[in-house]
Structures are given as structure tokens and as C-alpha cells.
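Board notes, transcribed. Complex of a protein with zinc ion.
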Amino acid sequence: MTPARTARARRARDIGLDVRAPKTVCEDRHCPFHGRLPLRGQVLEGTVVSLGMQRTAVVERTILHFVSKYERYEKRRRRYLAHAPPCLSPTVGHRVRIAETRPLSKLVSFCIVEDLGEAARHVRGEDLEARPERSAEAA
Ligand SMILES: [Zn+2]
């Protein structure tokens, strides 16, 4: 790599999505901003519920699904394993935007691309282990 290209690689790449680029730089090759990870497909929003794995976060998304028989909504929940680049330094309880990418492992095919800050008030302060009735603002 030429010196000029190295210098360019330090700055965050344009990942093709309308997100704020991270302020810090990382060396992660699976970082969409500082590595070479292409993103394509779905872009979703969710809440980080666990960071127990190395560079992988559990992101939970709640949607409301209409059940016509009862004319009511039911809550549906899905957890995504998403790659967490160190430059974004994700935090448990924060809302994040995740973008689909190629499979990075058996269960990881999303990557966190933006930290949207702390989740809504009713989630903050709540025990994250026992949350049977998290609200569904991610509809
Ligand atoms: Zn990075």
C-alpha cells in the first residue's frame, strides 16, 4: 500500500449509508468505516442487550404485528448478533443501527453502524436481565 492510501484509510470510509461516522479510529478489518467490510441489504434499529462476546453484540428489536382476528397488536421480538467495531464502542442499553453484511460467522451477518444513544426513558434504569415488558418503539 502506498503512503497516500494508508493515510486515506485512517479516515472513515463512506459506507454508503446516512450515518454519523465514528469519532475514533480502529484497526478492525471487519469495521465498515476503517476496514473493508461491504454492507448491503437491510438496515435495522435495535437495542444492545449484551456485549459478552468479543466484538459481537446482541441487538434486540421489537416490532408490533397486527393480529386481525383480535384487532390488536402483538409484540414480536428478535435478537440479532451484530459485529461491534471497537471504534463505535457500543454500550448495553443504547439504541443502535445495524446494517446487513455478508456472514461474518455462523450467526453474525449484521454490523453495528451507528450509536443512537441511550434508549428511551422506560428502558433506562430498568434491569436489563428481567425485562418482560420492554416497550416497542422499534416498530
Ligand atoms: Zn472502525
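The first helix runs from residue 3 to 10. The radius of gyration is 17 Å.
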